[in-house]
């Protein structure tokens, strides 16, 4: 089969042996594969990421000198099964799969490990237990976005955003755009998006953002509707006084019961939920300094460098920080069906398609945010320019 192989940050399109599915595995013909920001990072910073992976307990992440086939956002069709499979679907069935396989007891990240070649290729091996049929005639292009949209869905779920809360999305690259789509699918009524790029702001609007801000001109924090928003710590203290004044008016009723009841329900004043989707040094500290009190900050952007924050700022505002990664199989399945049922439309994210010979150009193009968001690879295409 033909595949795009990267070694020491250089791509070449090579003829590789046809993959052989192992026990419990399935061979797919690749229909489409998305280029992910993780692929861009892995190409040029593989060793740093691998060292970080080792520190967290995974020692099979790709190294720069290895020959690796990238690609973990894909859709495909069933070709054949390995031994020990239940053979749930006929050959030719369109499917997607979580990008993870297991050799013996050892898991490997598809497209990010030399032990699990990815879908920048005509064929890819997946785990049968992690494979799901594509429902409702969903296109191969949209099905291939199940993986990045599942990342966004996981982030939105972890953010626990109420429909009446304001959600801020800082950074409107592919993951920020996906988060916007999923926030609107979850019924969040007010989504404020912020990005310096005019093209990305345009795409944020297309994805459903209610307010889109150029932070070079306007502050996203003042762009949302007021609706009793807590602006500073004095507002929290004033709320405490107002609440106690009200409760003290009720004679012979222990006022502290009201607080205990609120604590049991985890109720009380809250700020917005902020999704950090930039992943560069300094942005997190900027958010902590600018965000309203009682905000919840969900860190989705992957910063690969050391960074500094001022914890006292977050403490004084009682800001909650959450870091998210990936998704579980249930979230992956639910995302697939949200796409297939039309609850999420990822069309604005897809801005180009190339064949295997166009991957080098696609990577170069993606460095400029004004040109593209998500470029797909079609192994059968001869296109060299997205």
Shape: elongated
Looking at the structure, the CATH topology of the largest domain is: Quinone Oxidoreductase, Chain A, domain 1
Radius of gyration: 23 Å
Mean pLDDT equals: 94
Helix run count: 11
Largest sheet: 7 strands, mixed
**β content, as a range?**
15-25%
Integer tally of domains: 2
Number of strands: 17
Mind telling me which CATH architecture of the largest domain this is? Alpha-Beta Complex
Helix-strand category = alpha/beta
Task: Return the string of H and E elements.
Answer: EEEHEEEEEEHHEHEHEHHEHEHEHEHE
Family: Belongs to the zinc-containing alcohol dehydrogenase family.
Cofactor: Zn(2+)
Protein name: Zinc-binding dehydrogenase
Keywords: Metal-binding, Oxidoreductase, Zinc
List key phrases describing it:
386 residues; alpha/beta; Quinone Oxidoreductase, Chain A, domain 1; Rossmann fold; 2 domains; seven-stranded mixed beta sheet; six-stranded parallel beta sheet; 11 helices; 17 strands; 31% helix; elongated
């Amino acid at each position: 089969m033909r595949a795009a192989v990267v070694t020491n940050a250089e791509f070449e399109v090579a003829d590789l042996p046809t993959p052989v599915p192992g026990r419990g595995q399935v061979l797919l013909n690749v229909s489409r594969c998305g280029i992910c920001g993780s692929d861009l990072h892995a190409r040029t910073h593989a060793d740093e990421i691998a060292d970080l992976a080792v520190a967290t307990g995974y020692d099979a992440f790709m190294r720069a000198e290895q020959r690796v086939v990238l690609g973990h956002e894909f859709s495909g069709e069933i070709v054949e099964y390995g031994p020990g499979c239940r053979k749930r679907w006929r050959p030719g069935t369109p499917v997607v799969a979580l990008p993870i396989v297991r050799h013996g007891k050892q898991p490997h990240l598809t497209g990010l490990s030399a032990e699990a070649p990815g879908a920048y290729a005509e064929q890819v091996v997946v785990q049968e237990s992690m494979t799901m049929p594509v429902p409702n005639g969903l296109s191969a292009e949209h099905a291939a976005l199940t993986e990045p949209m599942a990342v966004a869905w996981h982030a939105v779920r972890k953010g626990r955003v109420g429909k009446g809360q304001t959600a801020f999305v800082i950074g409107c690259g592919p993951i920020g755009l996906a988060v916007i789509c999923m926030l609107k699918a979850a019924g969040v009524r007010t989504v404020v998006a912020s990005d310096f790029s005019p093209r990305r702001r345009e795409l944020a609007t297309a994805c459903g953002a209610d307010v889109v801000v150029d932070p070079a001109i306007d502050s996203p924090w003042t762009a949302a509707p007021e609706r009793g928003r807590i602006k500073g710590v004095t507002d929290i203290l004033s709320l405490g006084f107002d609440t106690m004044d009200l409760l003290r008016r009720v004679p012979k009723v222990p006022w502290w019961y009201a607080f205990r009841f609120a604590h049991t329900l985890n109720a009380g004043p809250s700020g917005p939920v902020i999704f950090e989707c930039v992943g560069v040094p300094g942005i997190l500290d900027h958010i902590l300094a600018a965000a309203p009190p009682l905000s919840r900050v969900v860190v989705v952007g992957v910063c690969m460098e050391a960074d500094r924050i001022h914890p006292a700022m977050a403490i004084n505002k009682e800001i909650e920080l959450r870091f998210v990664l990936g998704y579980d199989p249930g979230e992956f399945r639910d995302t697939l069906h949200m796409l297939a049922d039309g609850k999420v439309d990822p069309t604005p994210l897809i801005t180009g398609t190339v064949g295997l010979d166009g991957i080098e150009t696609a990577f170069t193009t993606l460095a400029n945010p004004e040109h593209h968001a998500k470029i797909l690879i079609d192994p059968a295409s001869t296109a060299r320019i997205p």
